[in-house]
Amino acid sequence: MEVLLRKHNIHHTGLISESLINKLDRYTGAEMAYIISEAMFEAFSDSQRPISAKDLEEATNKIIPVADQMRAQIDELRRWGKVNARPAS
Fold first, then answer.
1. Which of 13, 24, 51, 71 has the smallest CB count inside 10 Å?
2. What is the pTM of this model?
3. Domain that holds residue 70
4. Domain membership flag for residue 89
């Protein structure tokens, strides 16, 4: 998340809470980038202010990570891989 915030020249101090870190555990990089875009949009539309931790938390609540959306398919693929695939190392 810090790297993605830096790409937008946003100083991350005070923006990333333990609560947010715990929520982001299952999100992909693309999903996190979307969360930042949503937070930036909300802040801009509210008097063009800088984004806040609250903006990031609220944006996080708007998206369900693909890992949760497709849990059954991912679990099935993992089961298939354990039986049919050879480990890379």
1. 13
2. 0.75
3. 2-84
4. no
